[in-house]
Design a protein that fits this description.
The protein has twelve helices and ten strands. By secondary structure, it is α/β, with parallel strands linked by helices. It folds into two domains: about 230 residues, Type I PLP-dependent aspartate aminotransferase-like (Major domain) (Aspartate Aminotransferase, domain 2), CATH 3.40.640; about 120 residues, Alpha-Beta Complex (Aspartate Aminotransferase, domain 1), CATH 3.90.1150. Strand 2, helix 4 and strand 3 form a beta-alpha-beta unit. It comes from Saccharothrix violaceirubra.
Length: about 375
């Protein structure tokens, strides 16, 4: 039995709908980007997330860069980002000429540590940019107190969404992403900014379309091409209706895994109901990965190298400090298959093999 980590037939159940959407938009006289479907999708997200404004962009990385720019971040400013996680928060800062300041994470949840953030704030700090790791939300209340106390914005990167309505309630401006590996499972790329700050939202709208503010022939700011695709918007409007069902299945699979793994030596389960990613802490991570691979079970090692240890970011990292929790999490996290396409029998096989490995003392 082969059990892939990601669902191979990502949009198979909606294949005819997707093809129809492509044909309808391709044959229409309307725009291919930032049209009526994008406007409807943005309005639907506002309603679902309970925010005053939503701005769809071409990707999560570009959306983060646009939000930072709209927040006044520029050359030589500092942005506090997690030392563990994906590259976009640090990369978006560098794209603006700013300096990513790497803060350590909590060794259990793998999300940004508010105490370490507080120690790193300086007169040059212009934003705090946490990531919701493995769909586990950061302590936004604590981070907001730290950021507001220093007079800088908190910008939440939520590329891998939590269950529920877009990961809300939002305590700050957030960025959600819709790529293949994310909760929505798009056949392309896209992201959306959610915020209650109407001025910030308008600035992002201008920046995403070459700095144009209404007149298609006049740019009022230096912007970018980060316009949302109409096909993706129309498809996402449909996918929103199936989102609760998909996440419910993921949460139930994750709950089953956690029940089976409770008490296993060398294994720590993630927070309850944290789908659509299920990442274990495993003392002998690589041997377990190899054990499962030998039995046809796909897994994923998320972020095996902390960001400040990666070549492109090392030159910008604080050379006089370490990130022990980020190093630990990088060595111990293993993500298991968790998607709606898994059958109950496949889920049971995955759980059986993890238990078999742990009960054998971490040996195949």
């Amino acid at each position: 039995m082969k059990i892939p980590f990601r669902q191979p037939d990502l949009v198979e159940e909606d294949r005819e709908l997707l093809l129809a959407v492509v044909e309808r938009i391709g044959r229409s006289a309307g725009p291919f980007v930032l049209g009526e479907h994008t406007a409807r999708f943005e309005a639907a997200v506002c309603s679902s997330a309970g925010v005053r404004a939503a701005v769809a962009c071409a990707s999560g990385t570009s959306a983060l860069a646009l939000v930072l720019s709209a927040s006044g971040v520029g050359p030589d400013d500092e942005v506090v980002v997690p030392a563990y996680g994906s590259a976009p928060p640090a990369a978006a800062s560098l794209l603006l000429g700013a300096v990513p300041v790497f803060a350590d994470v909590d060794p259990v949840t793998a999300v940004l540590d508010p105490d370490d953030v507080g120690r790193l704030l300086t007169a040059r700090t212009r934003a705090v940019l946490p990531s919701h790791q493995f769909a586990v939300r950061t302590d936004t209340s604590a981070l907001r107190r730290v950021a507001v106390g220093h007079g800088v914005p908190l910008i939440e990167e939520a590329a891998v969404n939590r269950p529920g309505t877009f990961g809300g309630p939002w305590t700050a401006t957030g960025v959600l992403s819709f790529g293949r590996a994310k909760g929505f499972g798009l056949p392309g790329e896209g992201a959306i900014v959610v915020t209650d700050d109407l001025d910030l939202a308008q600035a992002v709208r201008v920046l995403r379309d070459h700095g144009r503010d209404g007149d298609p022939e006049v740019s009022v700011r230096i912007g970018a091409s980060s316009r949302f695709d109409e096909v993706q918007a129309a498809f996402l409007l449909h996918r929103m209706d199936t989102w609760p069902r998909r996440l419910d299945r993921a949460v139930r699979i994750g709950g089953y895994y956690s029940e089976r793994f409770a008490g296993l030596a060398g294994v720590v389960t993630p927070s309850p109901g944290s789908g659509p990613v299920y990442a274990l802490h495993v003392d002998r991570r690589d041997p377990l990965r190899d054990h499962l691979a030998a039995r046809g079970i796909g897994t994923h090692v998320p972020h095996p190298v902390p960001l400040p240890r990666q070549p492109v970011f090392a030159a910008h990292a604080q050379g006089d400090r370490d990130w022990p929790a980020a190093e630990l999490v990088s060595r111990t996290r293993l993500a298991l298959p968790l998607h709606p396409g898994l059958t109950d029998a496949e889920v049971e096989v995955v759980a059986d093999e993890v238990c078999r490995f742990a009960q054998a003392g971490g040996r195949s």
